[in-house]
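Practice problem 4.
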């Protein structure tokens, strides 16, 4: 049901992009990137949304295929599934789908930072090239989840390994540098929304570092079943994806000038709690604390205890951000 919902959402995005820009290739700005045309160059948000539409649709198809295969296998056990194929389909779906969430949420940075600074975020050729590269690579690096599967062909693992290094950087760099260029001497007023956006760019960029470390064969063989893994994905989801979403929600509900006093401090406290939480995960991984394990030794629990306090702080502030959004809904509805 959730998959079908997302598929309808993707199809609607694709329809909108095709109707407005004349095709998905033009949504990615290929006419400007390869043809040199400067007409109808799509804004950054459309470029990102086109990429997300393409890869999420493909991910959903793979997910649906493996679901149907499993259901058939349940009903008719004689119809067997190739376990390696099933695992590949699952990780093609999962890797692509979760990556696309950040690629979509980063449009909050592309849209809101220019508005609060009064400086446009221009679509450059480098920006277009980075997003086109990521569109192809995000689809081919999922074997980095299968580095421990000896039955996988070595070439597939090699692609997963090499492209994991290459893929992470183009979009991160154009986004990070773009954000810094817009912010530099802009005289911006640091409020809750702008601070959350800056935190999100930091959290995304910094969180990818432990992820790429884990996608390295030599490290993965040791670290994959440790707390390092929840450490890296909490890093870019808790401090990258979520601040993008919070900033967007609060901006939507309260507008440009209405974010409350001291909002920047609230956002920084969220960053501190979040960093504390992910650091405890990463420290546990560094100390080889296993995940998915029946036994959890008393020596490991000090990190859990610190992390629990940090998690409580994250939950409290998340509650506050969501409440700020929900509290404004009735007024927004009245204003129409
Ligand atoms: Cu992945």
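Answer key:
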């Amino acid at each position: 049901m959730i998959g079908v919902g997302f598929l309808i959402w993707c199809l609607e995005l694709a329809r909108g992009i095709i109707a407005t820009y004349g095709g998905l290739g033009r949504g990615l700005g290929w006419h400007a990137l390869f043809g040199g045309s400067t007409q109808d160059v799509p804004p950054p948000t459309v470029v990102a949304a086109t990429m997300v539409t393409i890869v999420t649709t493909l991910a959903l198809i793979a997910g649906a295929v493996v679901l149907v295969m499993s259901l058939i296998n349940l009903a008719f056990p004689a119809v067997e599934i190739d376990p390696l194929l099933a695992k590949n389909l699952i990780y093609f779906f999962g890797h692509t789908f979760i990556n696309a969430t950040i690629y979509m949420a980063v449009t909050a940075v592309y849209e809101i930072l220019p508005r609060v600074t009064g400086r446009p975020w221009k679509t450059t050729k480098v920006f277009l090239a980075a997003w086109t590269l990521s569109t192809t690579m995000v689809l081919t690096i999922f074997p980095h989840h299968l580095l421990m599967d000896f039955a996988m062909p070595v070439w597939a693992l090699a692609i997963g390994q090499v492209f994991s290094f290459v893929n992470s950087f183009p979009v991160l760099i154009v986004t990070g540098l773009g954000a810094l260029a817009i912010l530099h001497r802009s005289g911006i007023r640091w409020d809750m929304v702008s601070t959350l956006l800056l935190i999100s760019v930091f959290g995304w960029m910094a969180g990818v570092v432990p992820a790429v470390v884990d996608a390295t064969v030599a490290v993965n063989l040791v670290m994959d079943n440790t707390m390092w893994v929840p450490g890296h994905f909490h890093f870019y989801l808790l401090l990258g994806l979520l601040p993008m979403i919070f900033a967007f929600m609060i901006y939507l509900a309260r507008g440009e000038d209405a974010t409350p006093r001291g909002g920047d401090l609230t956002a920084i406290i969220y960053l501190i709690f979040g960093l504390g939480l992910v650091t405890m995960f990463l420290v546990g991984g560094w100390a080889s604390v296993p995940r998915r394990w029946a036994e959890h030794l008393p020596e490991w629990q000090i990190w859990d205890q610190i992390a629990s306090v940090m998690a409580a702080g994250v939950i409290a502030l998340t509650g506050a951000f969501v409440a700020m959004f929900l509290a404004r809904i009735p007024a927004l509805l009245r204003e129409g």
